[in-house]
TrEMBL record, chain A:
Taxonomic path: Bacteria, Bacillati, Actinomycetota, Actinomycetes, Micromonosporales
UniProt superkingdom: Bacteria
SUPFAM superfamilies listed in its UniProt record: Oxidoreductase molybdopterin-binding domain
Pfam families per the UniProt record, alphabetical: Oxidored_molyb
Organism: Micromonospora musae
Name of this chain's protein: Sulfite oxidase-like oxidoreductase
InterPro entries named among the record's database cross-references: OxRdtase_Mopterin-bd_dom, OxRdtase_Mopterin-bd_sf
PANTHER family: OXIDOREDUCTASE MOLYBDOPTERIN-BINDING DOMAIN-CONTAINING PROTEIN, PROTEIN-METHIONINE-SULFOXIDE REDUCTASE
Automatic annotation (TrEMBL), chain B:
Residues forming coiled coils: none
UniProt keyword Metal-binding, yes or no: yes
Domain FAD-binding FR-type: 10-111
One example GO MF annotation: 2 iron, 2 sulfur cluster binding
UniProt keyword annotations, A-Z: 2Fe-2S, Iron, Iron-sulfur, Metal-binding
Organism: Micromonospora musae
Name of the protein: Oxidoreductase
Cofactor: FAD
InterPro entries: Cbr1-like_FAD-bd_dom (IPR008333), FAD-bd_FR_type (IPR017927), Flavoprot_Pyr_Nucl_cyt_Rdtase (IPR001709), FNR_nucleotide-bd (IPR039261), MRET (IPR050415), OxRdtase_FAD/NAD-bd (IPR001433), Riboflavin_synthase-like_b-brl (IPR017938)
Positions of transmembrane segments: none
Amino acid sequence: MAVITRGFGGRRRDDTDLPPGQYRTDDFPVLSAGPTPRISLDDWELAVVTETGERSTWSWAEFTALPADEPTVDIHCVTHWSKFGTSWRGVSLDTLLADVETAAEYVVAHSYGGYTTNIPIEDLLDGQAWVAYEFDGEPLVPVHGGPARLLVPHLYFWKSAKWLRTLELRLDDEPGFWETAGYHNYGDPWREQRYRAD
Amino acid sequence: MARAAVPGRLTWQSATVAATRAETATARTLILDVDGWTGHLPGQHIDVRLTAPDGYTAQRSYSISSAPGPDRLEVTVQVVTDGEVSPYLVEVAEPGDQLEIRGPLGGWFVRRPADPRPALLIGGGSGVAPLMSMVRAATSPTRLLYSTRSPSDALFTAELATAGAAADGLVAVRHVYTRVAPAGSPVPPRRLDADALARVVWPRDADSVAFVCGPTGFVETVADLLVGVGHDPANIRAERFGPTGG
């Protein structure tokens, strides 16, 4: 039976776009596990590595010369906040993976600083994911994942790896940092997949 | 009929407010009785779910501030202006009231009891809550550096003074006040800086671990300063509280 909390009324807003268990914030909170890495654009490199070891890389100049999209999306953090209508500029994964030959079904995103997260490759294709390098018309600041971060807005935001360095394409699934620390392997906010076995 | 539990699944459990304890003018501790609770690792948090009589629900995450133990836990909550859940927990909830919790959660910002490494705990404001669990459960050398605006904003003041004065010398506590220093203090109020950190950081060869918790700006500053004074970034664990309207 449901537990009713005496004296609780709530401060509800009419937010029909909120996934279950989320609340809306107009701030941009930060969730990360350690110090914020600082990466010079001269040293920055993005790599895609396939299951056979084929490696494609982009320098900052090469990466930012690729065709870019300007998605406006809602984002949902597992710590219960959602932020509506965030504006980004970034390169679609469809573009980055267009010339990559692979049979991979999974991707592990590796970050500067050592963070990892795993995502099925089909969740990164067909206009669902970007490597973003601007937020609200400004260069993406380090605390929010700059120089560039993954943006996969239909999954909980820990899947949108900050400080992205390498996309490792794999035939098998390999749980990442939070996925091995008790969080859900897939992380769909609309099915409230926060923790393992949710 | 009761639904079969899914193995490994964190289910919602009912919790009863056993008692409350005022910590400051705007923060208090809720002592929760939870049947079958098996304890936690210091640093972990729980999700709290409140349900209004008409079925409307709200969820937030709160750090556990008590030492691990069965059937009971404590969360320490700071009121967030215009918040939805924190004003209820700090100003409305009374002994006997029921809510739901799920946890313990988080497998990274934790200090395991078996970990022999010395620890440096750095808290800003109510970010001291999960660090307090680490202090209460400390079995290896522990230094706490606690930054608040003023002495009256500090949580757990009396208990921290006792812990820091204990004969075993396991825990050392140092306060930093950013706006108002205690009456008669020779040290003026100031922000945490590299000097203050250099005085408490463990020697580089001590194989220590640092836990930093507080508002985002505080954590960013402290983590950067720690890296600056030579702390291994891989051994700095951070938990950030955004001003999220909770």
